[in-house]
Amino acid sequence: MSRDPDFELVKRFKEGESPEVFRALYERYKDKVFSTAFGICGDFAEAADISQETFILIYRKTKRFNFKSRFSTWVYRLTVNTALEKSRGRSRFLPLSEVDVEVLRDIGDGPLEKLENTERTTLVDCALRTLSPKLRAIIVLRYFQGLSYEEISSILRISMGTVKSRLWRAHRKLGPLLQRLFSTSLPGGEESSLEDN
After folding, report:
1. Domain count within the chain
2. DSSP, residue by residue, 85-106
3. Do residues 113 and 92 make contact, with C-beta atoms less than 8 angstroms apart?
4. Beta strands in the chain (DSSP E)
5. 177 and 190 share a domain?
6. The domain that contains 73 carries what CATH number?
7. Domain coverage including residue 132
8. pTM value?
9. What does DSSP assign to residue 157?
10. pLDDT value at position 51?
């Protein structure tokens, strides 16, 4: 494993140099934690709660961090686990039957570029909400955070085969839906598809 870029900060925090050192770790990870949480839960307020809980866990547990994985892997693991725990029993599934393409055609206001960007963001969010939280987590880690299959495998503590299987299932569900949404919602009938990298 290559040297962890967070090694020095984590080592200093473990040795008792806080809260300044923890603030540096917080600044380094706050956006990644929030965007991961939001991608999984799809709700701004809930993502803020998940982020807060995650950083409380990081603060309490970092002194026990043993450097067997990269610190970033551990942070993502805590974030995903917290988000999945919160999503249990309160699933934000959006059945495909509730995806109203005609309503989505009227989203946005302003210049064409702003409208297209707003529509794309809304359509992707809408499509993501049709996935289970576990499949959403895979998509968020792979495409929103840009992590490799190996990193996702380590974060979620699942095999590479399971990572690939979940990605395939997510692609199978998202691909046709996104193509349908984009081809009917964007001006000019522009089409888009989700590609597997």
Report:
1. 2
2. HHHTTS-----GGG--HHHHTT
3. no
4. none
5. yes
6. 1.10.1740.10
7. 94-197
8. 0.74
9. T
10. 95
